[in-house]
Amino acid sequence: MLKLGDINLDVPFYQAPLSGYTDRAMRVLAHEYGAPLTYTGIILAKIVLHKKAFNKLFFQPRVDEGLVGAQILGGDPEIMAEAAAAFLNVGFNLIDLNFACPAPKVLRRHSGGYLLKDPETAIEILRSVRNTVSCPVTIKLRAGFDKSQESIDKFWQICQGAVAEGIDALVIHGRSVKELYRDKGDWEILSEVKREFPQATIIGSGDLMDAKTIVKRLKSSGLDGVIIARGAIGNPWIFNETRALWEGRSKPEKPDLTEQGEVLLRHYEMIAESRPMLKSIRYFRKFAVGYSKHHPKRKMVQADLIAAKKRDELYATVKKWYGVG
Ligand SMILES: Cc1cc2nc3c(=O)[nH]c(=O)nc-3n(C[C@H](O)[C@H](O)[C@H](O)COP(=O)(O)O)c2cc1C
């Protein structure tokens, strides 16, 4: 269905990288609910320069996560290649190079989205990684640094260079770096990339918040696949819903409140495995907000979940609204 080098996915969508979200807990649940592949968020490639830190990687994938890609960020071709090899070595199945991140501190270090201004370095990084690891290598990029003609030309230059280097997929978010998350993503330019490089695997990203929209995009864009990002936060069900619609079945009912509550607590407990209690409660809030959106009393549930400061308060809230825990 979707081929990324020698990895074959049975459906043409998977879980996007989301910094601060797509850690082990989110990946396990995405996998359970039918995502054929998940990603880490950005990992700084230069972590390989700190061998000890690298030995203790708590984010290395385990069997219950299924296939997982590591997304690396950096501007130095050699370090990126070294990092790719190291991540492959600890069990990741695929390497993704981030040429997309719009965070000012990343741009200042001439990595992430900055590389869209510097096609030569971007391609050198890709070549260096490609020559070092045997696993599939993909690139995540935005549709240019800004909307200027120069940026658009450089975007095409990178797409062309990457295809010439045999990239396994170009994963494109149809906004420029400067646009951040404003307005709607431009899907026309993504279709144009596919038309220009029909032999390459082109994957789209942007505003895919529900199964119906995702399947519509898959059918109308002519792309090989899409990734599911914000739509999956507190909503692992989006994967089996999309799978059902894509396979021509009707969309399954949302899980009942019992299942929602159980999943919410499992998500929290997996987060708590690697963080102290107060930190894990704080970190979990953004996911709790996502989960609460599926509850008929979402506003009250959200307020209560956010107010929970300790593990037992979280459990009491879940008991009150979901009847479990
Ligand atoms: C909170 C947040 C974190 C993100 N982190 C990453 C990241 O680490 N790497 C990356 O390539 N894209 C990242 N993205 C971009 C998403 O993968 C995706 O391309 C973008 O959100 C558009 O898809 P959506 O509109 O369906 O959410 C992030 C987006 C958000 C909102």
Write up what this structure looks like.
By secondary structure, the protein is α/β, with parallel strands linked by helices. It has 13 helices and ten strands. It has an eight-stranded parallel beta sheet with strand order 3-10-9-8-7-6-5-4. The protein is globular. The mean pLDDT is 96. The structure holds flavin mononucleotide. Flavin mononucleotide binds at residues 16-20, 41-42, 71, 98, 100, 140, 173, 205-208, 229-231. Residues 16-20, 41-42, 71, 98, 100, 140, 173, 205-208, 229-231 line the site of flavin mononucleotide.
Characteristics:
alpha/beta; binds flavin mononucleotide; TIM Barrel; 325 residues; two-stranded antiparallel sheet; eight-stranded parallel sheet; Non-ribosomal Peptide Synthetase Peptidyl Carrier Protein, Chain A
* CATH homologous superfamily title of the largest domain: Aldolase class I
Any guess at the CATH architecture of the largest domain?
Alpha-Beta Barrel
What are the distinct ligands in this entry? Answer: flavin mononucleotide
Give the averaged pLDDT, no decimals: 96
Q: Summarize the amount of helix as a percent range.
A: 40-55%
Number of beta-strand segments: 10
| Alpha-carbon distance between the two ends | 39 Å
Largest sheet: 8 strands, parallel
Written as H for each helix and E for each strand, in order along the chain, the element string is EEEHEHEHEHHEHEHEHEHHHHH
Number of helices: 13
Proportion of beta-strand residues: 5-15%
Q: Which value, in Å, is the CA radius of gyration?
A: 20 Å
